[in-house]
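name: query_chain
kind: protein
chains: 1
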Amino acid sequence: MAILIWTSTGIALWHFCVLVPDRFWGGIVGAFLGALVGSIISGGIVQIALGRSLGEGDIVTLLAAIPGTILGLAFFYWLGVRQERREAEAAAAAGQ
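structure:
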């Protein structure tokens, strides 16, 4: 049940990616993967720290996925911005 809660939270927050420029590494699919993996990792860490099984779920289970989702999205966004900069530098170097 906890994994379902984490993935649902990650997917729900992923929908807000349409409000920011699409600079995610891998586009919207990359943002989806970042949100999904981040929510599962942070949710799992909190679940293990609290000593709960994967069958248990409450509001803490839901809230535990939010920081990981945001960090996952931020990481994939940072990767995308870095890739764009490298491509722009390579294009500028090739044009000289």
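note: Helices lie at 2-14, 27-50, 59-95.
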